[in-house]
Amino acid sequence: MAVDYAVIVVYLAGMLAMGWWGMRRAKSKSEFLVAGRRLGPWMYSGTMAAIVLGGASTIGGVGLGYTHGLSGAWMVFTIGLGLLALSVFFSARIARLKVYTVSEMLDLRYGGRAGVISGIVMWAYTLMLAVTSTIAYATIFDVLFDLHRTVAIILGGAIVVAYSTLGGMWSITLTDMVQFVVKTIGVLLLLLPIAVVKAGGFSEMKAQLPNDYFAPLGIGGETIFTYVLIYTFGMLIGQDIWQRVFTARGDKVARWGGTVAGTYCLVYALAGAVIGTAAKVLYPDLSSADDAFATIVKDELPMGVRGLVLAAALAAVMSTSSGALIACATVANNDIWARLRGVSGRSGEDHDEVRGNRLFILIMGVGVIAIAIALNNVVEALTVAYNLLVGGLLVPILGGLLWKRGTVYGALASVIVGGLAVIGLMGKYGILANEPIFYGLLSSLAVYLIVSLLTKPTDEAVLAAWRLRLAGEATEETGEPQEETGETTGEATGEAGQRGMTEPAGATPSRGSITGEARR
After folding, report:
1. Degrees, nearest 5: CA angle 302-304-309
2. Within 13 Å, how many C-alpha atoms sit on residue 447's CB side?
3. What is the per-residue DSSP string for 233-272?
4. At 118, is the secondary structure helix, strand, or coil?
5. Which one of 163, 284, 336, 503 counts the least CB within 10 Å of its CB?
6. How many other C-beta atoms lie within 10 A of the C-beta of residue 404?
7. d(Cα 39, Cα 23) in Å, to the nearest integer?
């Protein structure tokens, strides 16, 4: 394993080096939180794919293939569909808003007063996502170095917290690009063909396994529908995803770069399912489906290659963990702490704001590591977070983007009623049941429509400012119309000279199993 260890150590050292390099570049709030809104298509596509395809999409996707065959691709497939929908229909408008958080968008659209509650819900979601990803280090480092669970969590978490705190989004972007390349080579180009060949090819796989393993809908229609509700819709509104959209250099980058990343997710989904199906032929009696990835890597891959593929799994977890961590810290600082102090979350771009956001990443990172050590299983906690996110925030966010008549009172009522409905139904049916998300969404939608129609329409001045922001015709700090600069919308003065460094050349499962295989 010496060669494999060397590969992993070099990879981890590279992550820390990029964190140090990112620190030298992140000199303003915009640079630190959204990479200066300057990412070109290649970096944007790679980082977006890296953030949405995490450990559960890799290890969990292979596990679903082991259990259900090719239809196990549906979980990651719905993630790709969500990213495609976000990129094609909403990303250009989101990028033009020039905000830092989803809650800021709600305040702009509805005239304030909607952001605090949504910020708390979004913070809980990103916190639990970061905790879940951090716990995954224990599994990977146990395979690599046979480390104790607590030591593994501290080691992996400390590396992510270090490079995220040092350079913010610039460090995370650079490390995500490396992680994207490592995942592509390790999973798609190495593990996938080797697994199929070791299993005797597709003809032997079909001969060894039941026909259900090759049925497109074998996992069950209800499960697929639940995946769509949780992951496709969740992709449309998550702070971790939106914060990556904010990094795009312009409308076309956000739209087409995201479309490329979404298409990549569809390919990755099928690859994971095929690898899991091959593992079922090779190891038909594994005690846990989630062991399929580690087992086939340890037993079937040559040294060096094995280290690279394990690095790919580690890369998947680290990209999700770092993205969730900076999203959690951004919401905590800008949407919760700044509001408690009565300070605008967008009050300036000086070094003090960088220092404040850096401090919040460090604090949130330490908290995430501590929670990850204390919890053995966060399936139920993550389920609550996803239910509250989708059940409480989906309707007011999409309603604000699509329906002019939506009001701040309708949005607040939608968040509160949808959230309370989800909590009450989880108490009645159980945290892992499907009913809370189904009925929570319906109640949120009904209340949003009814209250909005019964209350006074949003002030026309607020809507006029909103339309200016959507059109990219207002400044980031004041919301006033921009002066003509001769530059493309969304590009800052002097930005062009820096782009050379921006782009490189050239039976239905239970809800518990669904959420436990959470998208990343």
Report:
1. 85
2. 26
3. HHHHH-HHHHHHHTTBSSHHIIIIIHHHHHHHHHHHHHHH
4. helix
5. 284
6. 12
7. 17
* Closest to 2 (Cα-Cα) out of 429, 307, 406, 334: 307
- What does the pLDDT look like over 287-303, one tens digit per residue? 888 788 888 888 888 87
Helix (H) or strand (E) holding 108: helix 102-110
Contacts of 442 (CB under 8 A, 6+ apart): none
Amino acid at 25: R
Would you say 39 and 505 are in contact if contact means Cβ atoms under 8 Å apart? no
47-51, 310-314, 432-436: which has the minimum mean pLDDT?
Answer: 310-314
So what's the pLDDT on residue 301? 84
Residue bearing tokens 């592509």? 184
Location of structure tokens 């390349």: 181
Tokens for 419?
């959230």
Listed in sequence order, the residues at least 6 apart from 355 whose beta carbon sits closer than 8 Å to its beta carbon are none
Q: Which residues pair with 248 in a beta bridge?
A: 39
Average pLDDT over residues 185-203: 92
Q: Which residue has the tokens 């819900």?
A: 121
Residue 292 half-sphere exposure, CB side, CA atoms within 13 Å?
A: 32
Give start and end residues of each alpha helix (H) in 332-459: 338-340, 351-374, 379-388, 394-402, 408-429, 435-454
Q: How far is CA 447 from CA 389, 420, 435, in A?
A: 16, 12, 18
Residues sharing a CB contact under 8 Å with residue 365, sequence separation 6 or more, in sequence order: 157, 160, 161, 164, 165, 325, 329
- The Cα–Cα gap between 224 and 269 comes to 14
Q: Quick check: 107 and 115 in contact, CB under 8 A?
A: yes
Question: Taking a C-beta distance cutoff of 8 angstroms, is the pair 168, 31 a contact?
Answer: yes
CB 204 within 8 A of CB 281: yes
What secondary structure letter does DSSP report for 100?
S
Q: Which of 286, 273, 293 lies closest to 215, judged by CA?
A: 273
